[in-house]
Design brief:
alpha+beta, about 15% strand, single chain
Length: about 300
């Protein structure tokens, strides 16, 4: 499967709704183009491996962000909150594989699950890792190789892909600190709370949301809400709300013919001039310009 869709649909807990692959072969591949859009914060039960094919982008797990360029890769652990954003270059193409741990582990009583994969999944401290070319070129290249094999679908490709993924996961497992990871109760609370807070915003972004209402969704104070956002995402709730509204406006500009003023209103911007100003500050172009640019065809690998 190859796609350039940057929108993410989530459920009541902020968990991504897309089904990746099939029960028989639980893996899907994507080629995503971050020319005009970002991939907002989301999470899923599957592992995710990605390779930057062209350009550069900002990638993050929790509060840690890093710019990755062509030849770099990353790993997002199961249940890890993560996202990707444009840099000023406005050009990034990544090849990613999203697959369920069971693809490699097999049954829950297998040694592959109990000795290796479960250790990765259960490590709540290990959100993921950046695989930069200078230090992890071999591992990053394995990710792209797995993507190519899965894309070409030659005879027996399922065996080949699983073998490559097994190699990658073993290397990730081996690179983890061998001591048992300890997660504080505060960290576990923050992880659960941020998903509730994000879900509330994603459900009510078109309304005039107050920070007090966001905090109330998780039964916490405004100050605790601010602290949780800063700790987990590195930004304030107000900035997240604004960014999410802009992201949803982009999707409507690309996929509908609604008037720009109506799109701004639907996405929570009651003043059209303010909507245009914020959109231009975020994307470097106006809503009208991005509607034209989003229709251009960007060649993808076949």
């Amino acid at each position: 499967m190859i796609t350039e869709n940057c929108g993410i649909e989530t459920d009541a807990d902020g968990k991504e709704l897309v089904s990746h692959g099939t029960p028989e072969f639980p893996i899907a591949i994507y080629q995503e183009v971050f020319e005009l859009c970002d991939v907002g914060w989301h999470w899923h039960d599957e592992f995710e491996l990605a390779y930057v094919l062209e350009g550069e982008g900002i990638f993050s797990f929790g509060g840690e962000k890093r710019i990755l360029t062509a030849g770099d890769g990353f790993f997002a652990n199961s249940g890890s909150l993560h996202g990707a954003w444009n840099t000023n270059t406005k050009h990034c193409i990544i090849c990613s594989l999203v697959f369920h741990p069971y693809l490699v582990a097999g049954s829950l009583d297998s040694i592959f699950w109990t000795k290796y994969i479960k250790v990765l999944v259960d490590n709540k401290v290990y959100k993921g890792c950046f695989l930069e070319m200078e230090e992890n070129a071999e591992l990053a290249n394995l990710i792209f190789t797995a993507w190519q094999v899965c894309s070409e679908k030659m005879g027996g490709f399922e065996f080949k892909v699983r073998n490559i993924l097994s190699d990658i996961l073993y290397q990730l497992y081996s690179a983890m600190p061998q001591r048992k990871s300890i997660v504080s109760e505060q960290e576990l609370r923050d992880s659960a709370r941020i998903k509730v807070l994000l879900n509330f915003i994603q459900k009510h972004y078109s309304e005039g949301i107050k920070i007090s209402e966001v905090a109330a969704a998780a039964s916490i104070s405004e100050s605790e809400c601010l602290r949780c956002f800063k700790k987990m995402l590195g930004i304030s709730p107000g900035k997240y709300i604004r960014n999410y509204r802009v992201q949803k406006a982009y999707e409507l500009l690309k996929n509908t013919e609604l008037p720009i003023g109506e799109i701004g209103d639907v996405c929570g911007f009651t003043d059209e001039s303010y909507f245009v100003k914020v959109f231009r500050e975020t994307n470097g172009v106006t809503p009208g310009q991005i509607r034209v640019l989003s229709k251009k065809k960007i060649p993808l690998l076949q």
